[in-house]
Amino acid sequence: MDLGDLQIFRSVVHAGGVTRAAEQLRRVQSNVTTRVRQLEADLGVDLFIREGKRLHLSPAGSVLLDYADRLLDLAREAREALHDDVPRGLLRLGSMESTASVRLPVPMNEYLRRYPDVSLELSADSPIKLSAALLNGQIDVALAAEPLPDAPFEKVPLYNEELVIVAANGHAPIKSPKDARPNVVLAFETGCPYRMRLEDWFAHSGEMPERIIEITSYHAMLGCVVAGMGISLLPRMVLSTFPDAQLLSVHRLPPGIDRAMTVMMWRKGTLSPKVRTLRDVLVQHAGTNHAATNKAKARRRMNGK
């Protein structure tokens, strides 16, 4: 079904006949008549009841007119949206769980207040799955920790997360995997960058964990750590959301593996107004948080002196 045929059909209906429709469309009458006949042949129904030179809309024509109005209006809306600088429509955002739960609430609240014509759909997953979803067009933008594939994505850095080892309260200092008791790792499924970092830490020390227990949420993971089931590696900022953080011991990682950059990424050539404005809001908030963190560190150093 061709949108041009629907436009001609609707014009004939609204103009009250072929002659006036042809004038409005700046076409010859025979062309308009032929296009209407072709549309009827394609659909296999009569769209008009013909009485001499007069046309009356048939029952089938009445049904099609409703759909034609909606299809043509939707096509116009789509064309306008392609050249519209105002963010609107569904924004499909993918994120790691830690980023979604800690970093996003405040900036996303501001973003949706600033751009009320945007509706949000948020999904949480591992960076590998987020990259695949972005590549397949299932989401518009993703927030994930590096390392990540370069092409065909564009990226902007947002959060330089400090990574720490957590164990049960009272655990002896953990300077290497040999110090972990029990030697059990609590982690997300394969593909989680923090799990990969922890496994590399073990491997570089010539150690292997006795077991890796896969858990689906940070709070469940931290609850298992409190119970003494094992150790885990996660961004320090996650601890701020855990009500029993005082029951944990926190251990620093060696420099060089104690940081992970979380980036915002989207497919090259798809920086729509809603993605562009989201980038601007997140970059602004990330900069504000970074400045506040530096001030807090400076205050702690001064108090320490």
Any overview of this molecule?
- The protein is elongated, with a radius of gyration of 30 Å.
- Helix 1 packs across helix 3 (about 30-45), helix 1 (about 5-15) packs across helix 4 (about 60-80) and helix 2 (about 20-25) crosses helix 3.
- The protein has about 300 residues and is α/β, with parallel strands linked by helices.
- The chain has helices spanning about 5-15, 20-25, 30-45, 60-80, 95-105, 105-115, 125-135, 195-205, 220-225, 275-305, and strands at about 50, 55, 90-95, 120-125, 140-145, 155-170, 185, 210-215, 230-235, 250, 260-265.
Short synopsis of the structure:
The protein is α/β, with parallel strands linked by helices. It has helices at 3-15, 18-25, 29-43, 59-82, 97-103, 105-114, 127-135, 193-204, 218-226, 273-304, and strands at residues 48-51, 54-57, 89-95, 118-124, 141-145, 153-168, 184-187, 211-214, 232-235, 248-252, 259-267.
